[in-house]
Design a protein that fits this description.
This protein has 95 residues and is an alpha+beta fold. The protein has helices at residues 4-14, 30-43, 58-69, and strands at 19-23, 45-50, 72-77, 80-84.
């Protein structure tokens, strides 16, 4: 579980990041989960967005995706959200 200071630090890192994962009208598919897992393994911190034709809210998508890839939710604003998981092989972020 992240502390509020750790979460704040991750939020500031995420500010300048590009959105790399989009959730479309199909919602969270197995492929989306694999992409998120691989991206977290490579980067540890990723920014995602829910597109307008998606039935899920950003909060619902964040919670479901975090559960499926064992990540921590960092931030959710509007249609975008950020999640973090420490990499097993490629540790970059010290919090």
């Amino acid at each position: 579980m992240l502390t509020s200071k750790q979460r704040a630090s991750l939020r500031s890192m995420a500010n300048t990041m590009e959105t790399i994962l989009y959730i479309g009208k199909d919602g969270i598919t197995d492929n989306t989960v694999k992409e998120a897992y691989d991206a977290l393994e490579a980067r540890e911190l990723i920014k995602c967005a829910v597109q307008q034709n998606c039935d899920l809210s950003a909060r619902e998508a964040l919670n479901e995706l975090c559960e499926r890839v064992h990540a921590e939710p960092v931030q959710c604003i509007g249609r975008r959200f950020v999640m973090y998981r420490e990499s097993n092989t490629n540790k970059k972020i010290e919090i």
